[in-house]
Amino acid sequence: MSRPAAEVAVTGLGLVTPAGIGVAANWRRVLSGVSTAAPDDRLRDCPVAFSCRVPDFDPDALLGGFAARQLARYTQLAVVAVREAVADAGWDPRTWDGARVAVVFGTSFGGVESYESAYEALAGRGPRAVSPLTIPMHLVNMVAGQLAIDIGARGPSQVTATACASGATAVGTGRELLRRGDCDIVVAGAAEAALTPLVVTGLARMGALSGRADAPAEASRPFDRDRDGFVPAEGAGALVLERAADARARGRRPRVLVGGYGASTDAHHVTSPAPGGEGIERALREALRDAGVDGTDVDHVNAHGTSTPLGDVVEGRMLRRVLGARAAVTSTKGVTGHPLAAAGAIEAAYTALAVGAGTAPPTANLTHLAPELDLDVVAGVPRDLPIDVAVSMSMGFGGHNAALVLTAT
């Protein structure tokens, strides 16, 4: 006879995003509904010269100069977020059983900034100008490796790479490790720091980015009639996952439960979602089934909502079809921009905060809902409401889809 699957809880959160460093700063900015997009001098020669960067991030002060110099920026962001999440969960890595701690973290571009800098050094000054740390800083697996070193996690460690769904995939994968008994604690999340001239130019050449250069702060406008593309961003989000019974046994009340997880692939196009939303619908329905709830039970959705003309309509119509008209929908990318692979983890953390606070954040820059949509999108100011069941949606290039259902404890 099989045993019932264990409930998995989120016990700690950590955030380093354009909305601020730390959970408290992030939540204040997200609730304000004020965009973080601004001109970016490091992108001045690119087709799009604005972005959403993490403000006032000083790796020397936060990590120590020697440690910071050994880590690519995406890993720096991840380490700071994870340290906050672990402390928030009430754990001390010096005293836990590291063999029972796993790391599952997502990224897409890895240390692309370090790689581009190394190539420029090679081209301009020759081989001796290239740092011997170039490869360890660039490799996408190194975020999990470096995090494991930093917190002494000797259980399973891996990186998920499902493009902009990577963070949600990491949380879902970590949940399954716990339910199988492979570990007792999972540090899950994602990090991205790809605001480089090459990456941003590539995204612009694809037609994915907003061209609203005259008003960057108004450029990320999910579900709005006048949206024209997303604003690139960076950041990291971390969630500490444990079996809920274990958390309660040590006197820790879970923030939320990870009630359901669903994933799917469109198998349609490398960058465009399936036009009918069939792929992302399968992921959402599977997450709802896994959580044992109906679409009409969902109180709040943190949508993928990137501010692209096609993606927002495909997702919005799917949400209306599956959930009905009741759910209060938000896209926090109006504030943060699109942090690519880190988005799913950051937004899962925001969703957990919304459940805990009973507050749905507003969608920044939403002034006229797209006429193709029939959704209750929160705009202007936060909305207080009981949130017992919430959904965080993620979609990625390559047709990757992931959905998380978070429930109140």
Automatic annotation (TrEMBL):
GO biological process: fatty acid biosynthetic process
Spans traversing the lipid bilayer: none
Record-annotated Ketosynthase family 3 (KS3) domain positions: 5-408
Entry keyword set: Acyltransferase, Transferase
GO MF assignments: 3-oxoacyl-[acyl-carrier-protein] synthase activity
Secretion signal span: none
E.C. code: 2.3.1.-
Family: Belongs to the thiolase-like superfamily. Beta-ketoacyl-ACP synthases family.
PANTHER family in alphabetical order: BETA KETOACYL-ACYL CARRIER PROTEIN SYNTHASE (PTHR11712:SF347), POLYKETIDE SYNTHASE-RELATED (PTHR11712)
Protein name: Beta-ketoacyl-[acyl-carrier-protein] synthase family protein
Organism: Micromonospora sp. CCTCC AA 2012012
